[in-house]
């Protein structure tokens, strides 16, 4: 059984930083593209960032460009999201996902993907 588990969420002040981690078990991570999503109360889930499994290309939503960095360590089966210069608008539950599809379509990822349970991030002003 493939399982994804997020960690690293918490409460920080605006302007601070957090590093989210996602551990993948039951599968070899380099088979998959990996992405981070978030969902705020009353909002739809939105794509935040994606990293491909072949070229290593990265993709970012405009709202986080220049502030967030996605990375992966295939040897450890882990995916990371370094979040800097955090804003109250970043408050949400953050989810990691893995897919045999490509990052070019990551905004449409859904039932075909593997998902974690989420880790909450709260940014205070």
SSE blueprint:
Layout: E1 3-7, E2 11-13, E3 18-25, E4 33-39, E5 46-51, E6 58-60, E7 68-73, E8 78-83, E9 92-99, E10 114-115, E11 119-124
Parallel strand pairs: 2-11
Antiparallel strand pairs: 1-3, 3-8, 4-5, 4-9, 5-6, 7-8, 9-10, 9-11
Structure in words:
The chain has 125 residues and is mainly β. 0% of the residues lie in helices and 48% in strands. The protein has no helices and eleven strands. It has strands at 3-7, 11-13, 18-25, 33-39, 46-51, 58-60, 68-73, 78-83, 92-99, 114-115, 119-124. Strands 2, 4, 5, 6, 9, 10 and 11 form a seven-stranded mixed β-sheet that branches. A four-stranded antiparallel β-sheet has the order 1-3-8-7, with no helix packed on it. β7 and β8 form a beta hairpin.
The number of helical segments is 0
Ends apart, CA distance between termini: 40 Å
How much of the residues is beta strand, in percent?
Answer: over 45%
Fraction of residues in H or I helices: under 10%
Helix-strand string: EEEEEEEEEEE
Structural class: mainly beta
User: What form results from the Cα inertia axes?
Assistant: globular
The parts where pLDDT drops under 50 for at least 5 residues are none
């Amino acid at each position: 059984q493939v399982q994804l588990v997020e960690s690293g969420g918490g409460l920080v002040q605006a302007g601070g930083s957090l590093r989210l981690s996602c551990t993948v078990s039951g599968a070899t991570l380099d088979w998959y593209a990996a992405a981070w999503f978030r969902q705020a109360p009353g909002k739809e889930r939105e794509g935040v960032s994606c990293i491909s499994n072949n070229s290593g290309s990265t993709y970012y939503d405009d709202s986080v460009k220049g502030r967030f960095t996605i990375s992966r360590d295939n040897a450890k089966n882990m995916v990371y999201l370094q979040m800097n210069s955090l804003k109250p608008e970043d408050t949400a539950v953050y989810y990691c996902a893995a897919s045999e599809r490509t990052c070019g379509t990551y905004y449409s990822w859904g039932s075909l993907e593997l998902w974690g349970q989420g880790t909450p991030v709260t940014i205070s002003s």
